[in-house]
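User: Can you recover a sequence for this backbone? Please restate the input before giving your answer.

Assistant: Of course. Working from this structure:
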């Protein structure tokens, strides 16, 4: 798996407008992004990935969702759903509002 470069780490303007309009008081995810912005970048993880292979998920985004998952006490499936459905999570991860997010890890023997 290789590191898939992201087009930018800034919150897309539409995502920022929708997140601020729908959550004027903010959310945990918005707070995390606003305070931890720039804490980690794709380059920080580049040595962990080979140069070739199937592109992997953004390690900076995965780090962000792990922090949010811990803070909010979410299991893997609910954290992945929040990335797909919550504008605050999309804001925290600098995703466009229509980004499909990702699916939770599949574990053998677990029910969906």
């Amino acid at each position: 798996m290789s590191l898939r470069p992201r087009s930018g780490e800034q919150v897309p303007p539409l995502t920022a407008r929708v997140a601020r309009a729908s959550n004027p008081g903010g959310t945990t995810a918005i707070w995390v992004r606003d305070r931890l912005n720039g804490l980690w970048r794709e380059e920080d993880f580049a040595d962990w990935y080979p140069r070739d292979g199937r592109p992997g998920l953004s390690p900076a985004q995965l780090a962000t969702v792990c922090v949010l998952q811990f803070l909010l006490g979410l299991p893997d499936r609910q954290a992945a759903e929040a990335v797909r459905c919550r504008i605050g999570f999309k804001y925290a991860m600098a995703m466009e509002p229509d980004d499909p997010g990702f699916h939770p890890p599949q574990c053998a023997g677990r029910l969906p």
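That completes the design. Residues 107-112 have pLDDT under 50 and may be disordered.
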